[in-house]
Amino acid sequence: MPKTPASASSDALPELLALGQLLREERSRQGLSQEELAERLRLGTDQLDALEQGDRSRLPEPVFVIAQAKRVAGSLGITIDEQIVALRQSGLMEPVRRPAAPARVAPEPLAPEVRPARRAAPSPAMPAWLPAAAAAVVALGLATALLLPKRQAPSRTPAAATPATTAAPTSPTTSPSLELRPREPSWLAVQDLNGRILFEGTLSEPRSFALGRGLEVRAGRPDEVTVSAPGMAARPLGASDDFGWKRFSPPSTVPAPPQAPRP
User: Which residues, at least 6 apart from 244, have a Cβ–Cβ distance to it below 8 Å?
Assistant: First the structure.
């Protein structure tokens, strides 16, 4: 059943409709169905249909739309530079401003409860005979200490200190990773060598992926994404129109040569 074009919507964008119509007509002229082109690009059929219909309600952020349009045009072998310029100058590219969250007002601290001070209970009076009894006990203890023979304390030989053993520091082993750093939000897809998708969507901040046996990366704007890995300096993922998969392998480890026995 044919789908209704998005031009019937009140918020339809003429520049987006013109871009989608150009892509749809070129695909039909080459005899490709939406399913065939979506399979070639590894793209969802619904996403491709939304782009061809210019349906803003089913399309994500503008950067993703432009990246997808360039991928489709590159696969069809056509140039859409004029349509992209017109789309960038339209209202679709205006950033969405979100209202600031209201500030939270901290509750006033409760005043501490003031309690009346307690009066100390008066101490009982000391009996008159207590000082004399204490003096007698002290005198008796001194006399006993003088009369008893002194015992020599046995000499103790200090045990030899056992040297503490210090464990050799171990170096943590970390698996190498691939870091992708976008200069602006860009559509990106990452998969392993078995074709399992690890990430697909808009990348807004730097992110690292474990290399494992190897990774494949493709982007809507390869020139806006910087890639770096162990043993490889940071560089752009590719040219602006290079939408193919880029393969990255973990660095090869070369074993150290065996040392000759000492004489």
Answer: 218, 238
185 Cβ neighbours under 8 A, 6+ residues apart: 61, 63, 64, 202, 203, 204
Q: Is the dihedral of CA 146, 151, 152, 158 positive or negative?
A: negative
Among all chains, which residue has been given the structure tokens 């560089």? 235
In the structure, how many helices (H) and strands (E) does the chain have? 6, 8
For residue 39, what is the enclosing H or E element? Answer: helix 34-41
Side chain identity at 14, as an amino acid letter?
Answer: P
* 30 HSE (CA, 13 A, CB side): 16
3-state secondary structure (DSSP) of residue 52: helix
Contacts with 121 (C-beta within 8 Å, 6 or more apart), sequence order: none
Give the residue extent of every domain in the chain.
6-93, 177-248
CATH class of 6-93: mainly alpha
* pTM of structure: 0.40
Which residue, chain included where needed, has tokens 């789309």?
87
CB 207 within 8 A of CB 234: no
Q: Does the structure show a pLDDT above 70 at 258?
A: no
Give the chain's radius of gyration (CA, Å).
41
pLDDT band at 165 (very low <50, low <70, confident <90, very high): very low
Average pLDDT over residues 84-109: 61
Task: Assess contact for 226 and 180: CB atoms under 8 A.
Answer: yes
Q: Helix (H, G, I), strand (E, B), or coil: what is residue 208? A: strand
